[in-house]
Amino acid sequence: MKAWNQGIYSSDLPVKLIDNSYGNDICPSYYFRIGDQFRIGDQFYQLWIDYLNKEDRENPESLRFSLHEAENLGDAECPEIYDRSDCVDIFTSEEPEPMVTFIRELCSQLHH
Known about the structure:
alpha+beta; 1 helix
C-alpha cells in the first residue's frame, strides 16, 4: 500500500479537519464546518485529497484537492457528513497552498 501524503493539515487551517474517509472511496476526505458551536443549519464542507502522483489516481486528469459543500444527514451527536446531492466543486487545486488560502478566505468571509 502506498503512503498517503496529505499535503494539508488542520494546523494549516482555521478549522478542524475531521476524517470522513470510507473504505470504498477513491481517496481520503475530511469535513469541517465554519463556526465554534454546532448548530442546526451549519454549513459543512468536504475536502477530498487525492494521491500526490497523478498516475496513482483513479482519474489522472483530476486535480489533487477538491472542496465541496456538504450536509449533515445525522445530528449534532452523531454527524453523518456527505457531499450535497447537487455536488459541484467549490474550488480545486493541484497544490495545497491555493486550497489552504481559499479555505482561510472562506472562513474569514463567513465570520464577518
